[in-house]
Write a structure and sequence with these properties.
510 residues; alpha+beta; 4 domains; 22 helices; 10 strands; 57% helix
Length: 510
């Protein structure tokens, strides 16, 4: 991790930004302070000859990121959805990264498919197009099945991509380690853990068997969602390096002119994107975690079509309830409850002042309500949130990284469709519905019943467990001082038996 090749990699990053002309664009977009500008130029300019040239036909920022590799491209894809943070100019440059990257040869794709499926391609597909979209991980071809004549989308992994990603991730680990060493205050953000999480996500994305499984699960979960489509995978025509999905035609969500020409209401679409994401995250605990415009299209009937299931997020019931209560507290302006939830979940150290934390949260939330979203600077809001979390010693929650990142991306997508959208007003009905179903009296009763049912599964093992404990206690030397402890152990052994009986009763009643 700390080898000279990683130092060289980071230096080459700065040099590439300088050589392609992207350094000024990036520093200006982030409104970097003078000291940071000086340090960045110092890193890049002396080693400019080490920088990569990239494709001169591309805009500077896009040119730099495509030259640097797939991990940098992924980062650029996220930033492309946030014109309010990086500025309109840089955001427009980065949109190229979503699905218009240079493709690799079709002959290479065909060879990879034949190797994966162990069949000649003409025996599978009667037609096979040139690439219709190319992104950082893979490219997509349109094809027609020999057996049924159906049109399908065939996704093929970029050759050598895994090795390229590992090089980038290795350099990111080194950068995270350097940040922790030279800036100890950053350790609460756990940069190394963040990179570890990112590595796990990326490695899953490079295996299309996992993506096929995710697509199937996501399609099943969302089958009844109005205005939403998920192409289903063809398992027998998918493998590690390629996958086949049903064909779904639509207008790219980043093509606003065509969306308007098709008569689609952008305000409705913006609200639907945000509400669908919240429904999937809260209701299902399984959500599309790469919802940039390149992965979303609009069908002729107005449905939103989701593509690319390589990055999916999963959050479990307790975390979903915490997340919902935090959102609900903000929506209802109950900042005291939001603060309490943070403390109850262990997000804030218990030695901090809860009232002071609630006041800080109020300063974050109040400016949002009753204000046109176009007047809210998310860059400033996020900067203030960072100050708040630093002051109260909150650590980065790795299990929420994907959820938080996706929320940022989804909001950016929604805002690109409707610049005046108010995320809190749109989120309110979804969060309130989840709260009613998952945190009210019915939810408590459901949790108790589920707990009893889980305990009842141990019923067949209870006699042996109790007998084993009794034999163990009976074989111990008699020590009067330990009599009470033995009785406690006996009661603990009998408690599951009582739970089992309750479970049987509950099963009959329910």
């Amino acid at each position: 991790m700390r080898g000279p090749h990683n130092i060289l990699r980071l230096i080459r990053t700065g040099a590439t930004l300088e050589r392609t002309g992207a350094m000024d664009v990036v520093l200006e977009a982030f409104n970097a302070p003078k000291r940071l500008r000086f340090a960045a130029r110092l890193l890049g300019w002396p080693f400019k000859w080490l920088g990569l040239k990239g494709d001169p036909s591309l805009p500077p920022a896009t040119r730099a990121l495509t030259a640097l590799g797939p991990a940098y491209i992924k980062f650029g894809q996220i930033l492309s959805t946030r014109p309010d943070i990086v500025g309109v100019a840089l955001s427009e440059q980065l949109k190229y990264l979503q699905d218009k990257l240079p493709p690799f040869p079709t002959a290479t794709a065909k060879a990879m498919i034949e190797a994966e499926l162990e069949k000649p391609l003409p025996s599978i597909f009667s037609e096979f197009s040139e690439p219709i979209a190319a992104a950082s991980i893979a490219q997509v071809h349109r094809a027609r099945l020999v057996e049924t004549g159906e049109d399908v989308a065939v996704k093929v992994l970029r050759p050598g991509i895994e090795r390229a990603f590992r090089k980038d991730i290795d350099a990111f680990y080194f950068a995270a380690w350097v940040i922790e060493v030279i800036a100890p205050f950053s350790r609460r953000l756990r940069p190394v853990d963040v990179i570890t999480h990112f590595e796990g996500v990326v490695m899953d994305e490079l295996d299309f068997r996992i993506e096929s499984s995710s697509a199937a699960e996501f399609a099943a979960n969302t089958a009844k969602d109005a205005g939403f489509q998920v192409p289903k995978p063809y398992w027998f025509l998918s493998g590690r390096t390629m996958m086949t999905l049903g064909w779904a035609e639509g207008i790219g969500l980043n093509d606003l002119a065509l969306i308007d020409a098709g008569g689609h209401d952008r305000r409705v679409l913006a609200a639907r994107v945000l509400q669908l994401f919240l429904n999937h995250a809260l209701r299902d605990g399984f959500f599309h975690a790469d919802m940039h415009q390149g992965n979303l299209k609009i069908a002729a009937n107005g449905d939103i079509i989701a593509y690319d299931f390589g990055i999916m997020g999963r959050i479990y019931e307790y975390t979903r309830r915490v997340y919902a209560e935090i959102l609900y507290g903000f929506i209802g302006k109950n900042y005291r409850r939001v603060a309490e939830v943070h403390f109850e979940a262990g997000y804030v150290p218990p030695d901090r002042d809860i009232d002071e934390f609630a006041r800080a949260l109020r300063a974050v939330g109040e400016p949002i309500f009753g204000m046109d979203a176009s007047r809210i600077s998310m860059a400033r809001l996020l900067a203030y949130l960072f100050e708040v979390t630093e002051r109260f010693g909150m650590e980065t929650r790795t299990e929420l990284i994907l959820l938080q990142r996706t929320m940022v991306v989804v909001e950016g997508v929604a805002r690109s469709l409707d610049p005046h959208i108010n995320i809190w007003e749109v989120a309110r009905p979804i969060v309130e519905s989840y709260i009613r179903k998952s945190i009210g009296p019915q939810a408590v009763l459901r949790d108790l019943v589920e707990t009893v049912r889980i305990l009842s599964r141990f019923g067949p093992r209870l006699p042996a467990l109790v007998e084993g404990q009794l034999i163990k206690l009976g074989n111990q030397p008699r020590q009067p001082m330990k009599t009470t402890r033995r009785i406690h152990w006996l009661w603990l052994a009998l408690l599951p038996l009582a739970a089992f009986c309750l479970g049987l009763i509950a099963a009959q009643l329910l």
